[in-house]
Amino acid sequence: MDAHSRGRADEIDPADQWVLNPQTGNYELRLDHSAGQSQTPSRPRRSSTATAADTTGTGHGAPAGAGRSTTAGTGAGTATEAPVPGQRRRRVSEQGGGQQPPASRRKRKQGASRKKKVLLWTGGTMAFVLVGGATGAYLLYKKLDDNIHVVDPVGTQSAGFRKGEAFNVLIIGTDKRTGEGNGGYGDKDSPGHADTTILFHVAKDRTNATALSIPRDLMTAIPECQSRQPDGSILTIPGQTQARFNVSLGQDGRDAGCTMRTVKELTGLTVDHFMMVDFNAVKELTTAVGGVKVCVEKPVDDPKSHLKLPAGESVIEGEKALAFVRTRSSFGNKSDLDRIKVQQQFMSSMLRQMKSDETLTSPTKLYDLAEAATDALTVDKGIGSLSKLQDLAKELSGIDMKNIAFATLPVIDNPAEPKPITVVPHPTQAPQLFAAMKADTSLTEVKKKTQDAKNAQKQAQAKLLQGTRAAAVDVRVDVFNGSGIQGAAQSTINWLQNNEGVTRSTNKSNAPEKAAKTTLTYAPNQADQARKLADMMGLPASALKPGRQDAGVREPMTLVLGADFKGAGVPITGPVKAPDVEKVEADKQVCAK
Question: Is CB count within 10 Å lower at the N or C end of the chain?
């Protein structure tokens, strides 16, 4: 009988209870911490005949499948083969008999349940969970380790996690129809495109994380990349100036390394690692955790995905869970963007379920989750082992759920299409969001950090910027790009004219040379214009360069964007202001509309 069936599971720590005897290859019970192992590796395994006292110790601590378990009877016990690790078993009461739990049980060390550090993460139609901290039985460990499928994309780094450095993990859910019962989902001819993609950014101080969903129908540049083929050869795949984001994987032999490069070119954020899964993952993980609570505002009856749900809350798992995250016909305007919102709500709920005491205190559930997750994963070499995934788990273990935010890349309809069916990044909000992620700005604390930034900026510039401000329409400025970022001048012009009303602004293309810092040069009689532009752009006092001679009536100021330029509308100094984008916070239940 497993620990969960015998009594309070939070008193069980399977790693403390069982050890491997290398002489027999079996797991054996360790009863007394003070005395070390009750059955040392050098001692032969005890016989299957046990006294009642012996059996009392074995009743609560054997991880499912660890060697043989001994069942006590009136006299000598009878040895029975334990099930495979993680296999679900019926309780005694369901089997119609069996012994009652023993009256006395060895209690685990106080606080040990908190040592089960859990890596919670999501990939497309799945949520990845790996049990960390319990380093017990070697064979169980090796089984989980062998489950993981590892690939080595060409040109990627395999560095570990460094304190004081942010990192990014790309989670990819493919539309490949692998696994039983998945023939009705995705594209039957797909080689495995990037159907659902999330860039998970972890702040350098590990206090917050942002999960950015990238729409599959986003038109973007896909850079040239090299892909390692099944036979070991390396294929060079030409880039595309404009293509759907989802073909960055699978198409023309592209692997996950190509998707990593595409995301870096799109966002400016270096992708350190990736995790990739298919449709099976969401079915297996939701079943392992015992179901995920979802909420819908109105009843759902979708003939395409066969999803049927009443209005309000439901608990779903397996096939129904996959249908929930795959349906387009049931929510919003039936677009991929609305499906992303539903997936974010689902993944937030799944994270909460995985972090619940009901899951964390059940050794059986924890093992089932670890087995399902490792079996579903394809990862890069840098996190391609159980120990490396445990390192990742430790990096994430301190992040509070309320500081994990799901957001979608801000987009607009593709202006190149008469009847848009694809989207392109929002010209101002997308760069602002990328800059906020680079600066580790938490989307759950945007208002507070924005106000702090404004206050700090006002104090620093108070003396230099005292005086009147010109109206935005009276500000004249020529913009030069010395940042090294392609299109920086034009994106700034677009933002100034469309968002701030500075219609008398001109793109002067590239500066004569690259500039380390952004500068605004102005004449004494343009000071009111300079103050206005400095307010808009968040320019520090050091960026303002007053001249000595007055300018003509129609003469513009000169703005040179430098290497400190983070994006149009993003303050040059102070904490970055994140755009007010729609988001889902991981600690809150939201009903799908």
Answer: C
